[in-house]
Amino acid sequence: MRLLTHNMLSSNIKGVTNGFPLLIEVEKVVEKQVDFNEDFLRNMFAKIEWKALVEASRTMGYTELPENSESSMLNSDEFLRKFHHALLELHLEEGALVCPETGRKFPVNKGIPNMLLHEDEV
Amino acid sequence: MVSSCIGVSSTCSFGTSLQWGPGLHTFISRGHIIGRNASVQVLNRTHNNSRKDIGIGIGIGIGKRVYFTAVSGGGRRMQTVVNAAAVETLQKGIAEFYDESSGIWENIWGDHMHHGFYEPDSSVSLSDHRSAQIRMIEEALRFASISDDPMQKPRQIVDVGCGIGGSSRYLARKYEARCQGITLSPVQAQRAQALAASQGLDDKVSFQVADALNQPFEDGQFNLVWSMESGEHMPDKTKFVNELARVAAPGGTIIIVTWCHRDLSPSEESLSPEEKELLNKICDAFFLPAWCSTADYVKLLESLSLQDIKAADWSENVAPFWPAVIKSALTWKGITSLLRSGWKTIKGALAMPLMIEGYNKGLIKFAIITCRKPVS
């Protein structure tokens, strides 16, 4: 699971008011090379929850992203590369996503999160 | 007025209906709920599910069966509606069915797990089916007026009930978009991701094990919400459609291609008993909950104030499909694969003639329903 996906996922357990962002429990991180596409990054920048991305990438062991961001940073190639790396090249292979309110863990196995709710969470 | 009677209902684990007169009703129904006591709501229902009278029942699990008994204040048509425990059972059944069957399907038919689109009354050979399945995707996109224009084409797509990701990969490639797929089957999700990786699409498509009735996404994420032949599996159509609308971005398009039963005429309250019986048999084999009509979907979309709602009946365009599937099952490869697969797959295969019967009787319809989420 890459952080682009993580930035879209939230916990929708019954009663949870804010299930985003999910915390990450890391067991295994894998880095996979992805072709750099500047247009895509510019497009995604406006839609990404930046703080969630920064926090998630730090949990995954990548500390290069700035705490805050603004669109002028997109002019910097260095920034774009870091953004690209954090968003697309870091994969959680094994671990869990954790609901920020209830602490409930959604397992991630072989890179695939299992977001199914139990009967009493619906 | 109090009377009691005992009845036995049909074996569809999802809804059984008996017709008894008013009074105290006691009936026993067979279902499959794993190890739990289940409470059952007994509702008096018309075809559009308006509740008139409510009763309570309890179930006792013995081994794998649950015996329900229910009492109600009275009324004509009684139907057991099973609660969350049964939805979980259905979902487990769906997951297991696809965990078991996906491999054999892929082996014979490839990575698209949906009907092909054919010219009406055409005769097709086995080699035409793959391109017919692709045509189905293209026809659906065309029906929904999805633009190829770089400024307007979809960028974020969700494939609800993605199977092994055939549509996800096709759409991601076609529009150079990102696609998220969700499925109840862990086997399918893994296979979908592996296929994406082998096709160089690993960075464009991602798959999750998730529930279409509780999509794990924040609101408004997707320009295109795609449900290709997964709606049939949704036990709660209202929730299903609500979720599709919730995750659609403002201005985004929703495309639902699904099996429905025929629309009811104004004078009809429900399908005939024979029609229901046929559908129940199909439900049982394919892990489907109760069917609804195309008109029901349109009403749901209207109730959510979605715009540009369009619907069409494509039953004539899919007619060659089930005979072709049956033919493929009867080949040496088909038979040996089935024998190596599990009972769920075999049972599903044996139910295929029922689909043909349903289509021939005008009971089963292959429908497309599309709409747009308002911009503001």
TrEMBL record, chain A:
CDD domains: Trm112-like
Pfam families for this protein: Trm112p (PF03966)
InterPro entries assigned: Trm112, Trm112-like
Source taxon at top rank: Eukaryota
Self-association state and partner proteins as the record states: Interacts with TRM9.
Family of this protein: Belongs to the TRM112 family.
Protein name, entry field: Multifunctional methyltransferase subunit TRM112-like protein
Organism: Forsythia ovata
TrEMBL record, chain B:
Gene Ontology biological process terms in this record: alkaloid metabolic process; methylation
Keywords, alphabetical: Alkaloid metabolism, Methyltransferase, S-adenosyl-L-methionine, Transferase
Any one GO MF annotation of this record: methyltransferase activity
Assigned protein family: Belongs to the class I-like SAM-binding methyltransferase superfamily. gTMT family.
Start and end residues of each stretch annotated as SAM motif I: 157-166
CDD domains in UniProt: AdoMet_MTases
Keyword NADP: no
Name of the protein: Tocopherol O-methyltransferase
Pfam families to which the protein is assigned, alphabetical: Methyltransf_11
TM spans (from-to): none
Pathway: Alkaloid biosynthesis
Region (SAM motif II): 220-228
Quaternary assembly: Homodimer.
Region (SAM motif III) residue spans: 247-256
Tree of life domain: Eukaryota
Domain called Methyltransferase type: residue spans: 158-256
